[in-house]
Amino acid sequence: MNYKLAYERLIQKALIRVEIPNVIEKHHIIPKSMGGSNSKSNIVFFTPKEHYVAHHLLWKIHRTKEMHYAFWLMINKTSRDGRREYKVNSRTYTIAKEEHKIQTSKIHKGKIRSEESKRKSGAAIKGRIPWNKGLTGIYTSETIEKMRTSALNKLPDSAETRKKKSESASSRRKIKGAENLH
């Protein structure tokens, strides 16, 4: 795939857009880390999805530490409720994670950390709630209890509802199967 051409087309699409979407994000056409400026001619407004795609393409085109860092921040950006804003497939995430480890190790290679620095980072890690402790890091205990109670009190679906769900899933599988034939 020609990533550079795809990026250029994405920029052109945004520049000729007539209707402004409800949610837009500002993007530097030529990234500032590559000499781009804040001038109006270097700014384009994207939908959040287009903005994600733009950074993904820039990362694939250039493979510099700056482009990697911008893409890494984007794929790890979380909303206020703690959910990831962008979804990436496992292959993209794995490649980005491996590159992130390489870039990070280059930055820290040869640096000697003081005992105070080690103590502070250890204390910070101990203060964090592990991911496997459920929802405690995202929701209050009251909210968790409400969610638990709601789930326990939920009535099972009626036979009619189960039948409708089954038919709906079946038709989606048929459509998806037909799409894969093309």
What does this entry look like structurally?
- With 182 residues, the chain is mainly alpha-helical.
- The protein has one domain.
- It contains seven helices and two strands.
- It has a two-stranded antiparallel ribbon.
- Helix 1 packs antiparallel against helix 2, helix 2 (48-62) packs antiparallel against helix 3 (65-75) and helix 3 (65-75) crosses helix 4.
- The model is unreliable at 129-136 (pLDDT under 50).
Can you summarize this structure?
This protein is mostly helical. The protein has one domain. 59% of the residues lie in helices and 4% in strands.
SSE pattern, N- to C-terminal:
HEEHHHHHH
Give the oligomeric state of the chains in this entry, treating copies of one chain as homo and distinct chains as hetero: single chain
Would you tell me the overall average pLDDT? Answer: 78
Strand order in the sheet with the most strands: 1-2
Radius of gyration based on Cα positions: 23 Å
- Count the helices. How many? 7
Name a few traits of the molecule.
182 residues, two-stranded antiparallel sheet
List the helices and strands and how they pair.
Elements: H1 3-15, E1 25-28, E2 43-46, H2 48-62, H3 65-75, H4 90-108, H5 115-127, H6 141-153, H7 159-181
Antiparallel strand pairs: 1-2
Helix pairs in contact: 1-2, 2-3, 3-4
